[in-house]
């Protein structure tokens, strides 16, 4: 009489499939993948030193010699991530393995990688590196902080407008190659979004979960805390924190995270309040399952979907926050960042289109990509479409 | 039937959904004479609503198509009308009432406005005063008390039954020739349902309109219909005069449906449940009895009177003797929900959901808990399981006091008692495999030495529930409602509890599925010597299933006794009223 | 309703306290923290002079005391009930009606309340213009998208709204300014400020005069506000449009809409008479939540368009470590937001008969 | 005295160059004590010396009165009340309204009378008495008398008035007395080489207007726009200007007493914070001048639109400040690595100033040798800027014990600590940032690691006061004659003193003390030169450069001339005008 349609697909798999069905989201994912690629392989894509060269018969790889601790760590972590993904370990453990692996990598890298403290980029264009048998240069032969002193770059040269050396995207105010900085800045843009949102998410889930599950007085106090962080304009809090605690990149991530959790907490709370009344949660309680299992196994996974939507927008927001901070003069100093570059463009009173178009465009694309993913995700978990999955809204 | 007001000929309605096309209505023909009622019955999804919506042309434009057929209202083919034309028919000649009185009224418009809107739409020359007057009259007609003062009320200020009356008033305001009612009482309490049905019959008598009445309850059919059409998978498998069809169903499907009605179910003859532990030999007898059961069922469907004899078998002698300590002992249980108001949310009053209830349930007994909606049935069940902290009173299971225990102290005791929920949608965690749902509690309570063993146990459990073992590796959304309900039951039984609360586990299901589950329950009871607190509002189910019946009214138990006695000769006036409201399939 | 309002107002107190505690501790923990040293910005004083000034500030604001004590002092001054303090900062008797004293800004040397009184109206004006503007556009687009679900307009609107969301505000601001207020391209709008200097002498409404067309104060103000308002609002379109669209879609298929159709109502009437009002409800609730983000957004917009609002003031105050100002700005903007929520909730009660607060 | 306004502090506040003139008028002193200067013979009899240039301008054939001067400020003004205001913008506004006794001639750099007719200085230099013009009145018509001068001094010296800066500055004056209605006598505590400018430079505030505020000093201290004086322009409402107006507007003082009436009808300042908005506004022709950064200047010079509408100027005002890197010699009571003279010299050898000027400033700057400008008489022409010399620097560092012992590219000192230091700079200045990045690369060549450390103004101030930094780059403004005491005297190396690099040299101290006491210029200059040589040798700072002013001015402004004080744009008495045909604002 009833012919059950057997689609042997888990709820999350279905959401993923539906999410991925859109066109926009594919574009978004491709863009993000491109960013990840750039972030991981930045030193090999844009650098002043040869990738490989042979001088007097001796073959050396200067890029590796000059590989910074950070570069090395990111590379190893990336490959660990690949390996873990390939190994098909079960969901939760994958993350654990990855974290363990990259922590180990951090330790090893810190103790073994010892690049020179001072890098004089001009030297790579001197005889020691030019009079060689052969050499392979990275596709963009300029490091992001190579200000081309020896080439007498005065900065702000339009793309291709330069004599002798080509800069595909021109140079920025200090004379560095824009494309090179763009590539290296992928790291900041990716990490600031992910880490900041990660921090915010962690705080939000804990606070919101406790509020939602226990309600009552916990809820009441928690809500006040949420309101506090909500009512002060985030940017203002950011400004205050950055102004007062300095402006390192990590600080910035922490700060964007610490100030951005209130929205997530609200979401989680709302979901948990709703879920608490769901029969299957009641059944779990009736079965005498421990609280952690109820909270994290039965409630969180069911409440997490709308949260993920919020996160994808949060990641996008964090990237914009970084740009805004740069605009207010609180960005990072020397490190390449899109926000700082865009800031140069909007602050300068002459309109250097390449300084606005490339970094501005990348910020736009990245934010847009995250938004597209978020949007697709939101449509995928739309309650009207997923009523059959057990969460009624 | 030259007198026919509405004549549907060879109607087909196809709906596009996803990639494919659903033949929701597949070549049906019927006609409704003036002043008479045509009832459409059939299981969920059989195409009743789509047929009705096709008649009034309310199906979404882009999705539906009518490859063939005509719908003649007074000889005019509705399918050929343009938008303008059909709008003139809607409300004026054909009106419709929907199932959900809660959501079918616009929440931000007063009920008066909504009715006058309909009036003025079809009588553009009617001025406000007259419209108001007519509206109030319409409200009075449907017996809304103080109609003139309620004119300005918003839907949320009315009870469910009143809202449905407003819907009827709205539908009748323009005195349509045909009223389509799509399960107008399904969402209502039996008592309210009885009133509404009575009202509708009266109005029909007064106005002489015709009705297309959709329901899945044969009891209602028996009360309302002049004509009956039985639908199955988009087809009208049987059409005829009401009495003829109910008494002498021709089509096997109609027969099966009628047989599944609890009143018509044959109660399997069972030996006293408490005697011995079921021995392995039982397994064989089970499959035997199953076969027997099925054959009895089919035959019983034709006779319909088997029930009487079977319930006689339910003599008190078959029950455990009363001096044994009861498995569950409830004393003066109160569950009061504070109503908080004012500046500091101080408690100003209580909703006395359960108020001084005392109840004993001996081992192995099935106790039915009945009562109207909101009388506190669920709350009582949840309180017994300590899902709702009782305000006062004591609950003992096996002599062990439950109230006042901490969550940790309670945990080992949870093994003994479990609960199964009404809503098959939300009672299973959609993110967990059936396997996890079943084995996780086992693990916590130390059942089964290792995971393999637990999976084996879970598999067995599912087989008991007549589900395949492979179901373990599926997610809840891959099952139908009835299957999910069985998994929910399996979860409750996974811990091998002595006592299970079943909270309206069948009310979301079709009759035929309901019948399966009920038989399953009896079977399990027989094999496991299970004690059940069966919460329901369906008297038919009560009579079929339970040994003893407890009637609740406004948080208190008003009557309690053997089912045969309570249902046969109710003492308390409330119980009498409740029972008389139940639409019976008396043919 | 009244008790509900009162209760909400009472609940604001812990939140506002929390805000000030948070901000105060951030400032106290920051490098330099709140010390009189940062107040002596001038480089042109002798060491003794600086010391004297330091002592003066220390005495006046109690900056040499431990942070918690300072905070309590500040709180006492700000709260309308508390101990009366005299000019020397000595504590007098307890009073319930001593009035609020927001203190004196370090940078400006003027009472904070006076400074805020100048700035708040400007920011409020900006936001109160932006909010309806955002709503009108979002509702119009959202509605069209919902009724034409799946059409090119629907898809296009969805994508372009999302794209707008993704444009960094400062880029948009600078580009708008560079293209629409620039003689080289289109000099349609002014570059800075919220009114021309002549506007003060103009009549309020535009009219024709013998000298030609007189813009009038109102039109002048609008003319100045257009670019900033666009800049502030475009980011908000995406979320609101989406919300409108889903909300309308949901209601278009709601049971009551079907009832209305069954009555014989035309589709347009169903949309406007029944669906529209119900669809607006979720939009009301989010309106208050937009306020903090608008306040934050005005930080940049005010900078680009040289508008002297709270945003600018906030940046200045933070950069100048102006404690009294920072504290007051934060709690007042928090307060405004909370009031915004309250108003939104009250509007909700009005719009939706089902909700009643007591 | 604003002599020691930090250059970069001005950079925050100032971006248009007219301020040079304002600065100057308000402040600068030179040793040239033009004794018994008097209203000497003038070209046209009745025109006073101070108005000669303005008079000449008004004789130009295309001279016309009318039009407005419209400028932009980069930040909102907090107040324009004299004394209370602290930024250069406010003093710019005030310079059009308040006048002082004397002013400096832009051609000769000599002092000449403005409100004063002439003055005499006693033999010991302790008493200066001014004879004042008798026809001077404030813009409200009240005559300006000696009482007002005395009042101005007393008002400043009143403790309750918030004018600590001015009080500190006038501290050397013992008393100011009126001698009759039009003579005022200043008595000094000790001989001081800048006594004349000190006394003559006080802005004269009308007694009748400001006196009431002595009773309510708080009201004065908190006021936003209390500004009334005798100058060529006035506030339309001298009491009620407020910052929220968004602009500042001065109107012509119709009662102006001067020999030449100013040309513009109004002076208007708009507030435009955003740089590109300011440029756009200039492009649109809505403001009259735009001061550019070097990079911008180079671009804009090529811009046809800008070229068509404006005239551009690049010039080096004599009072332009110099920028430097200060090497902190003492930290936490212990000498730092920069306490070693060889290290400081090495750093100077490494600092390729000419490259900085070329790359960062695009040659719109000249190298600084010492605090004294090359044109100043204080400067010893024999001293040449240090030439960059990597080998010499390396040798010096080696000599001082620095070597790269672990071959990581960074030098280590004897204790094995790497030679790395933080260079603190003010974050908001793009050119400084570029320079620091350049220096970082330059120092790297010698194995010295520079860590750029941008800081906010308050944080930087605090670090300066606590002497908590490694090295810092900032700027000082110069005067026509520059006093070294504040910055290099060892007595100022205390907490909160301006000798925050803790540079101590007894020989230099003595020279400074002597020079300051010497009123006779011919004896004083050799002392300064001697002091300069010590600084040159010791390099407590690495002196970097003096920047050119780069300015675009609207073409309709006429009679722009270069003087010894720089461009005469906006200098007072007003010399610029707009010919009738080009006038834009008619009101
Ligand atoms: N809008 C729609 N789009 C696609 N398919 C639909 C739509 N509405 C109904 N159907 C399908 O048409 C078939 C008939 O549905 P219908 O609502 O008429 O059943 P019913 O007999 O009224 O059931 P119930 O008793 O549950 O109301 C079902 O298979 C249903 O899934
Ligand atoms: N958590 C709660 N807070 C306040 N009141 C509650 C709560 N749960 C139930 N109630 C109230 O207690 C009363 C009894 O509710 P209960 O759910 O037990 O009724 P029921 O008999 O199960 O009804 P139904 O047949 O509709 O399921 C109702 O009036 C209900 O509104
Ligand atoms: Mg139906
Ligand atoms: Mg219930
Ligand atoms: Ni839903």
TrEMBL record, chain A:
**One GO-annotated biological process of the protein:** transmembrane transport
Asked if Lipid biosynthesis is a keyword of the record, the answer is no
Task: Give the record's keywords alphabetically.
Answer: Cell membrane, Membrane, Transmembrane, Transmembrane helix, Transport
SUPFAM superfamilies (alphabetical): MetI-like
User: Mind telling me which GO cellular component terms the entry cites?
Assistant: plasma membrane
Question: Which compartments is it annotated to reside in?
Answer: Cell membrane
Q: Which residues form the ABC transmembrane type-1 domain?
A: 186-374
What is the membrane topology listed in the Swiss-Prot or TrEMBL record? Multi-pass membrane protein
> Gene3D superfamilies recorded for this chain?
MetI-like
**The keyword Nucleotidyltransferase is annotated on this UniProt entry:** no
**Cross-referenced InterPro entries, in alphabetical order?**
BP-dependent_transpt_permease, MetI-like, MetI-like_sf
Spans traversing the lipid bilayer? 20-46, 66-84, 96-113, 188-214, 235-260, 307-333, 353-373
Q: Which Pfam families match?
A: BPD_transp_1
Annotated PANTHER family: D,D-DIPEPTIDE TRANSPORT SYSTEM PERMEASE PROTEIN DDPC-RELATED, OLIGOPEPTIDE TRANSPORT SYSTEM PERMEASE PROTEIN APPC
Protein family: Belongs to the binding-protein-dependent transport system permease family.
Record-given protein name: ABC transporter permease
Q: Which organism is it from?
A: Methylomonas denitrificans
From TrEMBL, chain B:
Q: Which family does it belong to?
A: Belongs to the ABC transporter superfamily.
What residues does the ABC transporter domain cover?
6-258, 330-579
What SUPFAM superfamilies does the record tag this protein with?
P-loop containing nucleoside triphosphate hydrolases (SSF52540)
Question: What InterPro entries is this protein classified in?
Answer: AAA+_ATPase, ABC_transp_ATP-bind, ABC_transporter-like_ATP-bd, ABC_transporter-like_CS, Oligopep_ABC_C, P-loop_NTPase
- Please indicate if the UniProt record lists Nucleotide-binding as a keyword: yes
| Organism field | Methylomonas methanica
Full protein name: Peptide/nickel transport system ATP-binding protein
List the GO molecular function terms: ATP binding
Q: Spell out the SMART domains in the cross-references.
A: AAA
Q: List the PANTHER family.
A: D,D-DIPEPTIDE TRANSPORT ATP-BINDING PROTEIN DDPF-RELATED, TRANSPORT ATP-BINDING PROTEIN
Which residue intervals make up region (Disordered)? 268-289
Coiled coil residues, start to end? none
Q: Which residues cross the membrane?
A: none
Keywords in UniProt for this one? ATP-binding, Nucleotide-binding, Transport
* Feature: compositional bias, Acidic residues: 278-287
UniProtKB/TrEMBL annotation, chain C:
GO cellular component, alphabetical, reads:
plasma membrane
Q: What is this protein called?
A: ABC transporter permease
Record SUPFAM superfamilies? MetI-like
- Membrane-topology annotation of the record: Multi-pass membrane protein
* Taxonomic lineage: Bacteria, Pseudomonadati, Pseudomonadota, Gammaproteobacteria, Methylococcales
- One short Pfam family name for this protein? BPD_transp_1_N
Q: Can you tell me which family this protein belongs to?
A: Belongs to the binding-protein-dependent transport system permease family.
Does the keyword field hold Transport?
Answer: yes
Which residue intervals define the domain ABC transmembrane type-1 in the entry? 120-344
Q: Which UniProt keywords are present, listed alphabetically?
A: Cell membrane, Membrane, Transmembrane, Transmembrane helix, Transport
- Which GO biological-process labels does this protein carry? microcin transport; transmembrane transport
Transmembrane segment boundaries: 120-143, 155-181, 222-240, 280-305, 325-344
Coiled coil start-end: none
Q: Which domain of life is it from?
A: Bacteria
The protein's location, in the record's own words, is: Cell membrane
């Amino acid at each position: 009489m009833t012919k059950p349609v057997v689609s042997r697909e888990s709820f999350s798999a279905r959401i993923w499939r539906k999410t991925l069905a859109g066109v926009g989201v594919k574009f978004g994912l491709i863009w993000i993948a491109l960013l990840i690629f750039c972030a991981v392989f930045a030193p090999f894509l844009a650098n002043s030193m040869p990738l490989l060269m042979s001088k007097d018969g001796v073959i050396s790889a200067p890029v590796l010699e000059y590989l910074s601790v950070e570069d090395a760590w990111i590379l190893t972590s990336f490959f660990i991530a690949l390996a873990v993904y390939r190994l098909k370990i079960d969901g939760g453990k994958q993350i654990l393995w990855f974290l363990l692996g990259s922590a180990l990598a951090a330790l090893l890298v810190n103790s073994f990688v010892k690049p020179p403290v001072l890098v004089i980029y001009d030297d790579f264009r001197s005889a020691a590196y030019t009079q060689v048998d052969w050499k392979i240069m990275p596709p963009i032969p300029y490091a992001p902080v190579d200000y081309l002193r020896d080439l007498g770059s005065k900065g702000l040269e339009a793309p291709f407008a330069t004599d002798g050396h080509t800069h595909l995207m021109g140079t920025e105010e200090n004379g560095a190659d824009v494309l090179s900085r763009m590539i290296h800045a992928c790291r900041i843009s990716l990490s600031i979004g992910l880490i900041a949102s990660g921090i915010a998410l962690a705080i939000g889930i804990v606070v919101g979960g406790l509020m939602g599950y226990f309600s009552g007085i916990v809820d009441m106090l928690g809500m006040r805390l949420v309101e506090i962080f909500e009512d002060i304009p985030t940017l203002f809090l950011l400004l205050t924190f950055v102004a007062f605690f300095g402006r390192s990149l990590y600080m910035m991530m922490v700060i964007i995270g610490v100030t951005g959790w209130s929205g997530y907490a609200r979401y989680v709370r709302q979901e948990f309040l709703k879920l608490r009344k769901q029969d299957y949660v009641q059944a779990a309680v009736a079965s005498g399952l421990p609280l952690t299992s109820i909270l994290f196994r039965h409630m969180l996974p069911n409440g997490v979907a709308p949260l993920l939507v919020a996160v994808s927008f949060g990641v996008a927001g964090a990237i914009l926050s970084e740009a805004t901070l740069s605009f207010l003069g609180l960005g990072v100093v020397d490190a390449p960042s899109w926000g700082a570059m865009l800031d140069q463009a909007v602050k300068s009173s002459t309109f250097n289109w390449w300084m606005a178009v490339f970094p501005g465009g990348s910020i736009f694309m990245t934010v847009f990509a995250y938004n597209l993913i978020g949007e697709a995700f939101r449509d995928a978990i739309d309650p009207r479409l997923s009523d059959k999955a057990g969460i009624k809204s | 039937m030259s007198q026919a007001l509405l004549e549907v000929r060879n109607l087909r309605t196809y709906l596009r959904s996803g990639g494919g096309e659903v033949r929701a209505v597949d070549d049906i023909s019927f006609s409704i004479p003036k002043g008479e009622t045509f009832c459409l019955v059939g299981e969920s999804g059989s195409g009743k609503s789509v047929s009705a919506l096709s008649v009034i042309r309310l199906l979404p434009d882009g999705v539906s198509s009518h490859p063939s057929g005509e719908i003649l209202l007074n000889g005019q083919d509705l399918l050929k009308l343009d938008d303008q034309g059909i709008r003139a028919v809607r409300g004026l000649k054909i009106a419709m009432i929907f199932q959900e009185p809660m959501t079918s009224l616009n929440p931000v418009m007063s009920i008066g406005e909504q009715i006058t809107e309909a009036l003025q739409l079809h009588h553009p020359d009617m001025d406000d005063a007259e419209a108001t007057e007519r509206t109030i009259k319409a409200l009075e007609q449907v017996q809304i008390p103080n109609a003139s003062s309620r004119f300005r009320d918003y839907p949320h200020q009315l009870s469910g039954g009143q809202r449905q009356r407003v819907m009827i008033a709205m539908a009748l305001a323009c005195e349509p020739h045909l009223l389509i009612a799509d399960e107008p009482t399904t969402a209502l309490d039996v008592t309210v349902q009885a009133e509404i049905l009575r009202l509708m019959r009266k109005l029909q008598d007064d106005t002489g309109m015709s009705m297309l009445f959709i329901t899945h309850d044969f009891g209602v059919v028996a009360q309302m219909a002049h004509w009956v059409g039985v639908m199955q998978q988009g087809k009208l498998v049987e059409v005829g005069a009401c009495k003829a069809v109910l008494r002498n169903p021709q089509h096997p499907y109609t027969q099966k449906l009628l047989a599944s009605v609890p009143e018509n179910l044959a109660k399997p003859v069972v030996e006293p449940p408490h005697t011995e532990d079921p021995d392995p030999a039982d397994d064989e007898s089970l499959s035997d009895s199953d076969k027997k059961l099925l054959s009895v069922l089919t035959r019983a469907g034709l006779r319909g009177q088997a029930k009487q004899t079977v319930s006689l078998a339910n003599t008190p002698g078959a029950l455990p003797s009363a001096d044994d300590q009861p498995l569950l002992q409830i004393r003066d249980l109160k569950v009061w929900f504070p109503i908080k108001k004012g500046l500091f949310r101080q408690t100003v009053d209580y909703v006395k959901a359960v108020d001084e209830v005392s109840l004993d349930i001996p081992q192995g007994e099935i106790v039915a808990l009945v009562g109207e909606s909101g009388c506190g049935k669920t709350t009582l069940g949840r309180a017994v399981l300590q899902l709702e902290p009782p305000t006062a009173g004591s609950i003992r299971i096996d002599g062990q006091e439950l109230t006042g225990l901490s969550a940790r102290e309670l945990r080992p005791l949870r093994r003994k008692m479990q609960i199964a929920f009404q809503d098959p949608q939300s009672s299973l965690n959609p993110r967990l495999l059936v396997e996890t749902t079943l084995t996780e509690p086992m693990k916590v309570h130390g059942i089964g030495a290792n995971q393999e063993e637990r999976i084996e146990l879970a598999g067995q459990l599912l087989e008991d529930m007549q589900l395949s073992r492979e179901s373990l590796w599926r997610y809840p959304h891959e099952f139908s409602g009835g299957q999910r309900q069985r998994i929910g039951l399996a979860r409750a039984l996974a811990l091998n509890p002595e006592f299970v609360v079943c909270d309206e586990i069948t009310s979301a299901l079709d009759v035929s599925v309901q019948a399966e589950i009920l038989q399953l329950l009896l079977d399990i009871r027989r094999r496991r010597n299970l004690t059940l607190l069966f919460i329901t509002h369906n008297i038919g189910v009560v009579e079929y299933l339970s040994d003893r019946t407890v009637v609740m009214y406004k948080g208190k138990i008003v009557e309690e006794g053997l089912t045969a006695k309570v249902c046969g000769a109710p003492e308390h006036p409330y119980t009498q009223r409740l029972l008389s409201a139940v639409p019976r399939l008396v043919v | 309703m009244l008790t509900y309002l009162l209760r909400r107002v009472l609940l604001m107190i812990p939140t506002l306290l929390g805000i000030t505690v948070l901000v105060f501790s951030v400032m106290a923990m920051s490098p330099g923290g709140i010390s009189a040293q940062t107040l002596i910005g001038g480089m042109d004083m002798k060491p003794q002079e600086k010391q004297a000034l330091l002592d003066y500030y220390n005495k006046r604001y109690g900056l040499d005391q431990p942070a918690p004590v300072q905070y309590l002092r500040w709180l006492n001054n700000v709260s309308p009930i508390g101990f009366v303090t005299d000019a020397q900062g000595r504590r007098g008797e307890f009073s319930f009606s001593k009035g609020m004293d927001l203190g004196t800004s370090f940078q400006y040397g003027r009472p904070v309340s006076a400074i805020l009184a100048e700035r708040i109206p400007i920011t409020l004006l900006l936001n109160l213009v932006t909010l309806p503007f955002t709503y009108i556009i979002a509702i119009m687009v959202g509605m069209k998208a919902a009724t034409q679900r799946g059409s090119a307009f629907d898809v296009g609107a969805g994508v372009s709204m999302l794209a707008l969301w993704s444009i960094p505000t400062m880029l948009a601001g600078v580009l708008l300014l560079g293209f629409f207020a620039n003689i080289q391209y289109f000099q349609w709008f002014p570059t800075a400020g919220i009114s021309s200097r002549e506007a003060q002498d103009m009549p309020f409404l535009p009219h024709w005069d013998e000298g030609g067309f007189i813009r009038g104060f109102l039109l002048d103000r609008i003319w100045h506000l257009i670019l900033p308002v666009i800049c502030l609002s475009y980011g908000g379109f995406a979320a609101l449009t989406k919300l409108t669209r889903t909300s309308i879609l949901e209601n278009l298929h709601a049971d009551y809409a079907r009832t209305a159709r069954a009555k014989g109502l035309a589709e347009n009437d169903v949309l406007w008479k029944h669906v529209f009002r119900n669809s607006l409800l979720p939009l009301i609730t989010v309106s208050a939540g937009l306020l903090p983000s608008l306040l934050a957004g005005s930080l940049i917009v005010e900078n680009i368009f040289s508008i002297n609002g709270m945003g600018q003031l906030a940046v200045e105050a933070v950069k100048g470590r102006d404690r009294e100002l920072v504290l007051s700005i934060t709690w007042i903007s928090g307060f405004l937001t909370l009031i915004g929520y309250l108003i939104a909730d009250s509007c909700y009660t009005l719009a939706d008969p089902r909700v009643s607060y007591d | 005295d604003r002599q020691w306004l930090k250059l970069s502090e001005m950079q925050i506040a100032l971006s248009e160059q007219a301020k040079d003139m304002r600065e100057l008028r308000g402040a600068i002193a030179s040793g040239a004590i033009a004794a018994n200067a008097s209203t000497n013979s003038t070209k046209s009899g009745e025109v006073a010396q101070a108005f000669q240039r303005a008079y000449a301008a008004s004789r130009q054939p295309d001279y016309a009165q009318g039009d407005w001067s419209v400028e932009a400020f980069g930040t909102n003004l907090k107040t324009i009340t004299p004394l209370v205001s602290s930024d250069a913008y406010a003093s710019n506004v005030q310079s059009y309204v308040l006048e002082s006794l004397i002013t400096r001639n832009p051609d000769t750099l000599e002092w000449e009378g403005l409100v004063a007719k002439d003055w005499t200085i006693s033999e010991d230099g302790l008493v200066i008495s001014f004879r004042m013009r008798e026809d001077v009145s404030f813009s409200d018509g009240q005559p300006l008398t000696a009482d007002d001068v005395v009042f101005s001094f007393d008002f400043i010296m009143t403790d309750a008035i918030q004018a600590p800066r001015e009080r500190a500055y006038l501290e050397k004056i013992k008393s100011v007395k009126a001698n009759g209605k039009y003579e005022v006598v200043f008595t000094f505590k000790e001989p001081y080489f800048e006594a004349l400018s000190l006394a003559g430079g006080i802005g004269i505030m009308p007694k009748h207007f400001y006196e009431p505020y002595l009773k309510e000093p708080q009201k004065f201290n908190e006021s936003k726009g209390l500004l009334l004086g005798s100058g060529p322009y006035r506030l339309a409402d001298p009491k009620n200007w407020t910052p929220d107006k968004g602009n500042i507007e001065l109107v012509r003082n119709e009662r102006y007493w001067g020999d030449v009436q100013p040309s513009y009808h109004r002076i208007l300042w708009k507030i435009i914070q955003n740089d590109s908005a300011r440029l756009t506004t200039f492009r649109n022709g809505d403001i009259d001048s735009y001061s550019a950064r070097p990079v911008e200047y180079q671009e804009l010079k090529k811009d046809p639109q800008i070229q068509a509408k404006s005239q551009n100027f690049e010039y080096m005002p004599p009072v332009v400040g110099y920028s430097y890197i200060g090497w902190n010699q003492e930290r936490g009571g212990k000498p730092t690595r920069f306490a070693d003279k060889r290290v400081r010299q090495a750093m100077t050898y490494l600092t390729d100033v000419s490259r900085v000027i070329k790359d960062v400033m695009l040659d719109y700057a000249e190298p600084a040798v010492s605090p004294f400008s090359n044109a100043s008489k204080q400067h010893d022409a024999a001293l040449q800027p240090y030439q960059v010399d990597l080998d010499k620097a390396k040798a010096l560092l080696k000599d001082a014990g620095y070597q790269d012992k672990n071959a990581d590219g960074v030098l280590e000192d004897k204790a094995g600590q790497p030679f790395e230091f933080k260079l603190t700079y003010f974050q908001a200045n793009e050119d400084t940032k570029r320079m620091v990045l350049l220096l970082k690369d330059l120092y790297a060549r010698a194995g010295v690691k520079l860590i750029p450390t941008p800081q906010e103004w308050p944080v930087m101030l605090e670090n300066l006061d606590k002497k908590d930094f490694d090295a810092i780059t900032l700027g000082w403004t110069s005067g026509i004659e520059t006093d070294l005491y504040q910055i290099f005297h060892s007595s100022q190396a205390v907490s909160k003193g301006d000798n925050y690099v803790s540079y101590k040299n007894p020989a230099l101290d003595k020279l400074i003390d002597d020079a300051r006491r010497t009123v006779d210029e011919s004896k004083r200059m050799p002392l300064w030169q001697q002091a300069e040589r010590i600084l040159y040798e010791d390099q407590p700072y690495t002196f970097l450069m003096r920047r050119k002013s780069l300015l675009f001015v609207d073409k309709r402004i006429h009679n722009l001339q270069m003087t010894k004080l720089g461009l005469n744009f906006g200098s007072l008495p007003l010399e610029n005008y707009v010919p009738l045909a080009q006038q834009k604002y008619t009101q």
